[in-house]
Amino acid sequence: QVQLVQSGGGSVQPGEYLRLSCVASGFDFGTYVMNWFRQPPGQELELVARITGSSVIEYNLDSVKGRFAISRDNLQRTLYLRMYNLQLEDAAVYYCNARPGGVDVWGNGSLVTVST
């Protein structure tokens, strides 16, 4: 069964750190691009960053460049998103995503709350 299981997230204050994890199963993880998306409250889903199987990285949002770090461990079949210096505007539900065989697979979502 193709599955992405997320962990991490939580409630922090501005300037703090969180790490999200996403464990994959049911497909050849190391060969696929992995993505992190987020959906802020009342807003549309947006791509945060993506990483190829060989760890070529692209950050889609200028606001996270220099603060967020996407990475992967192909042996552990795990995708990470390290989020440093979190800001109020980073509050969202974060989802990992892959498209094995052209079919979108989504993680279960991780709520990140940033408040003073």
Explain this structure.
It is a single chain. The chain has 116 residues and is an all-beta fold. The protein has no helices and eleven strands. It has strands at residues 3-8, 10-12, 18-25, 34-39, 46-51, 57-59, 68-73, 78-83, 92-98, 105-106, 110-114. The strands form two sheets. Strands 2, 4, 5, 6, 9, 10 and 11 form a seven-stranded mixed sheet that branches. A four-stranded antiparallel sheet has the order 1-3-8-7, with no helix packed on it. Strand 5 and strand 6 (57-59) form a beta hairpin.
Short descriptors:
mainly beta, 116 residues, 4-stranded antiparallel sheet, globular
**Number of separate helices:** 0
Poorly predicted runs:
none
In round numbers, the mean pLDDT is 97
| Secondary-structure element string | EEEEEEEEEEE
Classify the secondary structure makeup into a structural class: mainly beta
The helix fraction, in percent, is under 10%
By oligomeric state, this entry counts as single chain
Q: How many runs of DSSP E, i.e. beta strands? A: 11
Q: From the alpha carbons, calculate the radius of gyration and give it in angstroms.
A: 13 Å
SS strand fraction: over 45%
End-to-end separation in angstroms reads 41 Å
User: What would you call the shape?
Assistant: globular
Specify the biggest β-sheet: 7 strands, mixed
List the helices and strands and how they pair.
Elements: E1 3-8, E2 10-12, E3 18-25, E4 34-39, E5 46-51, E6 57-59, E7 68-73, E8 78-83, E9 92-98, E10 105-106, E11 110-114
Parallel strand pairs: 2-11
Antiparallel strand pairs: 1-3, 3-8, 4-5, 4-9, 5-6, 7-8, 9-10, 9-11
